[in-house]
Design goal:
Belongs to the FBPase class 1 family. By secondary structure, the chain is α+β, with helices and mostly antiparallel strands. The chain has eight helices and 15 strands. The chain is globular, with a radius of gyration of 19 Å. The structure holds 6-O-phosphono-alpha-D-fructofuranose.
C-alpha cells in the first residue's frame, strides 16, 4: 500500500499493527521504545564534537576493543530503557560479555540483540555510525529469558533494523513486510517516512571491501576482487570501490544504490578466522533487511546468513551481502 511521504514512523507502526488482528501492540511498543533511545543517542552523537563525549572511556569490551564514551552512552541508553519496557525478556549487546536481564516484573515476549554504536572507531573523525537491532520471539514460556531465547537464526526474526547517525539521522527497519526508511526532523523530534519500500537494485557496479586485508584472504577471494577491477567495459568493469569502514554506512549505501559488500574470512588474526562481523547483531539483521529489499546475504562459502543458528552470542561470520545478482555472481566465483 503506497503511503504518503511524510507520515511519521509511529503512524507506520500503528498501521502495520492494524493489519494483524492477532497483534497485541507489544512489538509496536518495543519499536517505539527503541525509537526514543535512538533519538537520545542521535542528540548525543551530534553534539559529540562539542561536548567531551569524544575519545575513549578507558575501558575495553568483550571484543577487546577500546570502548568509546559514546559506545558506553549508547549501550546504557538502550539497555536501561529496554530493561523496563515490559516488551522483552532478555537482551544481548556487542558491548557486554553475557546476556542482559530485564527488570523483574517487566518480562515480555520478545528478545533484543543490538550493537549500540557500530563503526565506533569512526566516532572521532565524524564518519557516519549507527545502531543495529534484531528482535525475535522468546522460546521460553515466561519469566526472565535465557541464552537460548537469543541464539535464534535470522529466518526466525520478527523485526530488524538500524539507525544511521550521519548527515541526517535515519531509521531503516522491517517487520517482514518490506523495508522502510524514516528521516529524523530534529526540529520536531519526529521520524518521517522518506524511503518507502526500499528495493536493492539487482545489479550495481560498486564493491565494498577492506582491501588492506587482501594478502590475508583465500586465493578465490583475491581472484574475485581482481576480477571486479579488471578492464572489460562491455561488462561494466572495473567496478568502483567504496569502503567507509562503518557497516551501517556501507550497508546503507548498498541498500539505496546497490552493490556488494564483503567482509570475508582472513588469516590476519588467528582468533578471528571468520572475519570481524558478528552474526547475531550485525550480519543477521542486515541479511534480513537485504532479503526483505530483494537482495541476498551469504557467507563466503555460500551459506545463507539467515539459515545460520548462532552457537554463541558474539560469534563472527564472513559476510557477502547486497545486490542479488552481484552476490550470486560472487558465490559462483568463490564456490562455483
Ligand atoms: P575493518 C566497525 O568497527 C566494524 O565492526 C564495522 O562497522 C565495519 O564494517 C568493520 O568493523 C570495519 O572493519 O577491519 O575494515 O576496519
Amino acid at each position: 500500500m503506497k503511503r504518503p511521504l511524510g507520515i511519521t514512523v509511529h503512524r507506520q507502526i500503528m498501521d502495520s499493527q492494524s493489519l494483524h488482528n492477532e497483534a497485541t501492540g507489544e512489538l509496536s511498543g518495543l519499536l517505539t521504545e527503541l525509537i526514543v533511545a535512538a533519538k537520545t543517542i542521535s542528540a548525543e552523537v551530534n553534539m559529540a564534537g562539542l561536548a567531551d563525549a569524544l575519545g575513549v572511556s578507558g575501558k575495553t569490551n568483550i571484543q577487546g576493543e577500546e570502548v568509546q564514551k559514546l559506545d558506553e552512552f549508547s549501550n546504557n541508553t538502550i539497555k536501561r530503557r529496554m530493561a523496563q519496557s515490559g516488551y522483552i525478556c532478555v537482551m544481548t549487546s556487542e558491548e557486554e560479555d553475557g546476556i542482559i536481564p530485564v527488570q523483574e516484573g517487566c518480562e515480555g515476549k520478545y528478545t533484543l540483540a543490538f550493537d549500540p554504536l557500530d563503526g565506533s572507531s569512526n566516532i572521532d573523525v565524524n564518519v557516519s555510525i549507527g545502531t543495529i537491532f534484531s528482535i525475535h520471539r522468546r522460546i521460553s514460556s515466561s519469566g526472565q529469558g535465557d541464552i537460548d531465547d537469543l541464539l535464534q537464526p535470522g529466518n526466525e526474526l520478527v523485526a530488524a533494523g538500524y539507525m544511521i547517525y550521519g548527515s541526517s539521522t535515519m531509521l531503516v527497519y522491517s517487520t517482514g513486510e518490506g523495508v522502510h526508511g524514516f528521516t529524523l526532523d530534529p526540529s520536531v523530534g519526529e521520524f518521517f517516512l522518506s524511503h518507502e519500500s526500499i528495493r536493492v537494485p539487482e545489479e550495481s557496479k560498486y564493491f565494498s571491501v577492506n582491501e588492506g586485508n587482501y594478502n590475508y584472504w583465500k586465493p578465490e577471494m583475491r581472484s574475485y576482487v581482481d576480477y571486479l577491477k579488471t578492464i572489460d567495459e562491455a561488462s561494466g568493469r572495473p567496478y568502483s570501490a567504496r569502503y567507509i569502514g562503518s557497516l551501517v554506512a556501507d550497508f546503507h549505501r548498498n541498500l539505496i544504490v546497490g552493490g556488494i559488500f564483503l567482509y570475508p574470512c582472513d588469516s590476519k588474526n588467528p582468533e578471528k578466522p571468520y572475519g570481524k562481523l558478528r552474526l547475531l547483531y550485525e550480519a543477521s539483521p542486515m541479511a534480513f533487511l537485504a532479503e526483505q529489499a530483494g537482495g541476498l546475504a551469504l557467507t563466503d562459502d555460500g551459506t545463507r546468513i539467515l539459515d545460520i543458528k548462532p552457537t554463541t552470542l558474539h560469534e563472527r561470520v564472513p559476510l557477502v551481502i547486497g545486490s542479488r545478482k552481484e552476490v550470486e555472481r560472487a558465490e559462483q566465483f568463490l564456490n562455483g
